[in-house]
Amino acid sequence: MPDIGVPHAHRHHWYYVWFPLAAAFAWFATLWALLITWLASGRPHYVSQDGNIAYISDVGADILKPLFIVGCCFTGIGFVLSLVAERWLRHSGRLVPNMRKREKVFSILAILGSVIGGAGLILLSIFDTKRHTTLHRLFLLIFIVGVALSAIFTIVEFRWLAKDLPYLRKIKMSYMIKSVLATVLIVLAIAFGITLYYYNDVGAILEWTISFLYTFYLLTFFFDLRASRHVRKGELLYLKDVNGVQNGLQHPVHAQVV
């Protein structure tokens, strides 16, 4: 049962949840603002636009560039902070800790991937496609590769956690949802990279689709971090006991956490 005598600690744990929520909201709101602006303006053909359908970067390089930069900054930083918060909460025993060194290594690699991806996202918004086409596409590639690597490393970490702790259903659920979303996003990103140069309109549709789906990937970290609520520092470190893992020991409260 949660200790109702430590409300301040509970609130402290709950603050971390806002990182992925803020990132997802900023990204989703920015995308909608760009899309609605383009549609409401009568679908104008921008200077940097090649096909009939505008890319996100085409709209973001025009009058809404300040909004695009702010949205990308919030999203990139929020993504990094979400992974850092999860790493810290696992280390401090507020989330299920990594059972072995390998999970910790992949968690750190996922953070590094998010830093690369986040930096790419921020820089591509600053160096827009209208004025800095080559740099913009370079930073777009960095963003895609960084996020993809981060997702792969995170999925590997969760796969090992799910294997070591099969009775924690939320771990397995988070692993499966992340795996499906990441697989779909990576496949679509590869298709986007091909169509970007050969089928402009298809590439634009894929870019908008990938971007909106990325919102849901960010939200998966909200469900991970919210499990730290009502869990005090060090409370879940007992799960690192090798005998506990092997024997499938579980606690009526702890069995619900991620």
Automatic annotation (TrEMBL):
Keyword check for Transmembrane: yes
UniProt signal peptide: none
Main location: membrane
Residues annotated as transmembrane: 15-40, 67-85, 105-126, 138-158, 179-199, 205-223
Keywords: Membrane, Transmembrane, Transmembrane helix
Organism, scientific name: Schizophyllum amplum
Source domain of life: Eukaryota
Protein's name according to its UniProt entry: Frag1/DRAM/Sfk1
Subcellular location(s) of the protein: Endomembrane system
Cellular component terms per the entry's GO annotation: endomembrane system; plasma membrane
Bilayer disposition of the protein: Multi-pass membrane protein
Domain CWH43-like N-terminal: 16-227
